[in-house]
Amino acid sequence: MIQHPLSSFHYCPRCGQTGLEHVHGRAIHCPHCALTYFHNVASAVACFVRDDAGRLLCVRRGREPAKGTLDLPGGFVDPEESVEEAVRRELLEETGLTAGSVRYLFSIPNIYPYSGLDVYTADTFWLVRVPTFEGAEARDDAAELVIVEPRELEVRHFGLTSVRSSIKRLLGDLSLLEGE
Which residue stretches of 25-179 are H helix? Predict the structure, then answer.
């Protein structure tokens, strides 16, 4: 059974007192200092990066969770950053590539296991166009870059649940890779 991340909190993050009340299964309330804290969904981005030759760029995960499996370049949206800015930043951080056109495709709810907690996320998937993969390199938490033809994608090589779902969705409708 999946437990909400706040279920393990026993002390108020503001005043340090015990006696937290769990509200609606989505928040904690401290009767001592009146803090009510909602642990909202985190926003994340993942990029289907396509070059002018029609190939896709994937990364091999260099860190847990799912270390060693394939992934799409991406990550969490930073505070005070738009989702579109996160797409461009994450692509640059992980591959050294500068995004050309960026187009939203779809989103998938996810639970991302991190540091012993389940982080609830809204994973957004984007089509990013670049002219070429020349000069790309594995950076940050990407251990390796893997270039594939879209039809050669195999769901079983991807380790994260929402990314596997996105690959299935893409393979069911390769027209998602068309257009700007």
Answer: 83-95, 161-172
Are residues 140 and 164 in contact, defined by beta-carbon separation less than 8 angstroms?
no
pLDDT on residue 98 = 98
Is 1 a residue whose pLDDT tops 60?
no
Identify the pLDDT of residue 124. Answer: 98
Token reading at 78: 């930073």
| Spatial distance between the Cα atoms of 93 and 21, rounded to a whole number of angstroms | 40
Cα torsion 88, 48, 176, 147 to 10°: value is 140
Tokens of 89: 């930043």
Range 46-71 average pLDDT:
97
**CA distances (Å), origin 67, targets 10, 23, 40, 78, 144:** 31, 35, 26, 22, 11
Q: Which residues of 52-68 are buried (b: 16+ CB within 10 A; e: fewer)?
A: eeeebbbbbbbeeebee
Segment 6-12 long-range contacts (CB within 8 Å, at least 24 positions apart): 6/37, 6/39, 8/117
SS3 149: coil
Cα–Cα separations (whole angstroms), residue 14 to 10, 11, 28, 169: 12, 9, 12, 43
Q: What percent of the chain has pLDDT over 90?
A: 82
Longest CA–CA separation in the chain, Å? 61
Q: What is the pLDDT of residue 54?
A: 97
